[in-house]
Amino acid sequence: MSDFLTTSGYQKIAKNLVLPTRCFINGKSYQALGGETFTSKNPATGEVLAHITACQSVDVDYAVASAKNAFDSGVWSEMHPSERKGILLALCDLVEKNQHELAVMESLDSGKPICDCESIDIPEFVHTVRWHAELIDKIYDQTAPVGAGAMSMVVREAVGVVGAVLPWNFPLLMLAWKIAPALAAGCSMVVKPAEQTSLTAIRIAELASEAGFPAGVLNVITGGGVAVGESIGRHMDVDMVTFTGSTVTGRRFLQYSAESNLKKVVLELGGKNPCVVLDDAEDLDYVAQQVCAAAFWNMGENCSAGSRLIVQEGIKDSLLEHIKKRSADWRLGDPLNPENNLGPMIDQGHFKKVCDYLELGKTEGYDVVIGGNSVDGRFIEPTIFAGVKNGDRMAQEEIFGPILSVITVSSFEEAMAVANDTEYGLAASVFTANSKRAIKAARAIKAGTVTVNCFGEGDISTPFGGYKLSGFGGRDNSIHAHDQYTELKTIWIDLNDHSK
Ligand SMILES: NC(=O)C1=CN([C@@H]2O[C@H](COP(=O)(O)OP(=O)(O)OC[C@H]3O[C@@H](n4cnc5c(N)ncnc54)[C@H](O)[C@@H]3O)[C@@H](O)[C@H]2O)C=CC1
Ligand code: BAL
């Protein structure tokens, strides 16, 4: 559903919303033992939304014990797959029933435009959970070709207790990408949302309980990165961690695992993704629209944002003219106004970081094609710097804001070399009318997803994750995500008659 209300309709919902302040453990609302709280603020206004319970390692112990008890009891892990599916589908129905309230909560907490919350985040949450729910009563285990003397079954079993540590840029959607395959596979979970955006994750745990999830299967624990995130990463009873966030923090989870129980670790990390436009690209207005979406969607706070435009010199000027026109599609302002599609930066620390890149652009003397300014101390204008060299900081560092660097190249070969000249490898887009060049480019670029003649991340049926510093250990989405929340077990049955 994506019919928008009016701004005043959303404001009315916002006024009446009851925002959760306690987390959700073992089927109940839970207050951290230490009694401390942290504040969640509206990034668009700075207003305090909620004082949320700040958990510590002792609370993590309780959440993990609850998840482990639930898992070991078999109440979820051994439930008939079609029954598990039914409960996951019931959660989806409840999310749809509460769509507007969840959308407003997400927008207030994260600064995301309400139009995106309504038309992308919530429908995609539901689609993701339904897809994995629908999968679990249709997949079969295998037998191995071991001859007549034995029967060998190769079966998949749920990993156990999964810790999910989440980022703030897609609070609901990243929650879905992690919980849908893990819960469908039969795992129990301890989820830590980012401090900036805890509200909708808590609300989803409440709705899950209402949908019939047994206590302890889905626990949401709130608090800081070190107090809660590290405690999950080092916990001896957590069998796997799935993480989305910065590469710096992602590396830490490998360390936590190595220094504890060698838990499985799946990391979905940063990106500095190229949009390559070759000189035979058709319909430059469409290309410009896609380039703008790649760079500015979700305020550029997107790991797969196309933040480097690599354009062949013959069409650069013409493409930039189209991009200037298309940038008018991006309207900045009150996230609760459904006409706006650019909200504020997530918090003041991040706002300052992105402002520093605006300053860097001026210091470096780049051509400012559009934007270049901050607005109201919270928002950043969509900004394009031309004349950037790929070795520059602007083209190498993940900014996580609506800033696009334009790098000009003279040939296909140079475009490929520049596209790959990054420590990241999450996503890339290529625009060309020549199908051979499209396929060659898609094969040449070292990235987990390469889209041709469009910007995107694939869909629920395609794996999402990165090469190089963009990821480790697995993928979100698709049947591959389901598989990674399972262990492979071989059961070997001797059929020989040993009595002779
Ligand atoms: N790949 C992506 O989707 C994301 C990338 N980022 C990048 O990271 C930069 C910094 O943003 P942050 O919010 O600080 O990212 P972060 O990676 O530090 O935070 C993500 C999650 O990790 C947790 N965390 C933080 N420190 C931890 C630790 N020592 N041990 C365990 N868990 C920990 C946080 O509480 C949060 O839940 C951004 O400017 C952006 O460039 C941020 C969020 C998402
Ligand atoms: N774009 C979805 C994944 C992420 O930004 O973290």
From TrEMBL:
Domain Aldehyde dehydrogenase intervals: 36-491
Family matches, as Pfam families: Aldedh
UniProtKB keywords: Oxidoreductase
SUPFAM superfamilies for this protein: ALDH-like (SSF53720)
Residues forming the catalytic site: 268
Family to which the UniProt record says this protein belongs: Belongs to the aldehyde dehydrogenase family.
Protein name from the UniProt record: Aldehyde dehydrogenase
